[in-house]
Amino acid sequence: MLTLHALQQSRAFRIVWLLELLECEYKLVSYPRNPETLLAPETLKTVHPLGKSPILEDGELVLTESTVIAEYLARNYGKHNLLPEYNTPAYWQCRRWADYAESSLMPLMLLSLVFKRVETAPMPFFAKPVARKISSNVKSSFIHPQTELHLAHINETLAKQQWLLGNHITLADVMMSFPIQAAGKRFDLAAYSHILRYIGDMEHNPAYRRAVERSGKPVL
Questions:
Q1: Domain 89-205 belongs to what topology?
Q2: Which among 7, 73, 141, 199 would be 20 to 30 A from 126, CA to CA?
Q3: What's the pTM value of the predicted model, to 2 decimals?
Q4: What is the pLDDT of residues 11-45, one digit of tens each?
Q5: ω into 122 cis (within 30 of 0)
């Protein structure tokens, strides 16, 4: 049986959703975050030396990295055409969106979170105006313009179709789910109606709801 080791309230939720979409039998081992650091507990290192989530065990095979785990599952356990045929244009577009989620969109969401915490972090009173000024400058000159650029691109894609690759859900949508939902929590999406519809479609997906019941909602 497949075993998924997942940090609670994390991006590993995407793999739980994928397993539900694929209708796989699997064991879910959840790990609470360290209450002080919010990082994974040391016990995860007993599964893999890096102690990072998610980790997938399939017999003797142990895999880390979300995009690798996701493609492995979709390629070997797929029943619902979540991964297009290898080396077709659709396959490479699917891979492009999966990598885009981790390499282009998610870093902006993390930067947004980091600078939000900078503004509220405890520090000497004389340092607060400086920290807030730096944070404001970074957000206005880089984070917000770049995020708007990416959101416009995604919204334009979704104006043409229900899901990123067409009219059925694929691995691309699973991988994009966390960063696009995070964008919905941190930015005003009123101008991106197709993204708002897309998020609603995700969250009403039956497999998504089963994943929430099994592992809880991710914290965005």
A1: Glutathione S-transferase Yfyf (Class Pi); Chain A, domain 2 (1.20.1050)
A2: 141
A3: 0.90
A4: 999 999 999 999 999 999 999 887 776 677 788 88
A5: no
